[in-house]
Design goal:
Helix content: over 70%
Oligomer: single chain
CATH topology: Four Helix Bundle (Hemerythrin (Met), subunit A)
Strand content: under 5%
Largest sheet: none
CATH class: Mainly Alpha
Shape: globular
Low-confidence stretches: none
CATH superfamily: Membrane associated eicosanoid/glutathione metabolism-like domain
Length: 188
Amino acid sequence: MKAPIPKDLEAEIARVRRQAALSFLFCAPVFAAAIWWLPRQFEFPVEMAERLAFAARASLLIMLWVMIGVGTIARLRRKSAQDTAGSAFGPPSDRLRIPLAFLQNTLEQAVLAAFAAMALATVNGEAPLAFIVAMVVLFAIGRITFWRGYPRGSPGRAFGVVTTALPIMGAFAWVIYDLIARLLRGAG
């Protein structure tokens, strides 16, 4: 299976940007609902140990997608004479290429998301923990749409990639802002 080669790179980039914009428009209300609505509906932990435990459990839900990828690869390898020996003994079959790409990308995103969730749990207030809930939901939606769109090239993957990455970038930005604000308060 060969990757679709774009005939017009500029048009391909425009389609990727359009999907990224759609992802942003999809994610924004999810963030808003999580930050403003969830704290009114649920009591989030206050003590640091409980907050970190909350983030660890959320990270486990994120890592579930890595497990799904690993399980898919294992199942497909068992059913393929070409793939059963493992990647050290030859290139993957066409049937295994997309699941392997999914697993690799999901593992990369999951590591970032898990660390982002743990760091965000150290920021005071309920809103950061509500954001973690949104991150878990959007991670799942992002992974599903990434996998389903993969055969359609970069525009097909873009919505899923951005839906997965936006919450991670948002969490990193929030934690960095909090760190700087704390430093400035301490220096002032």
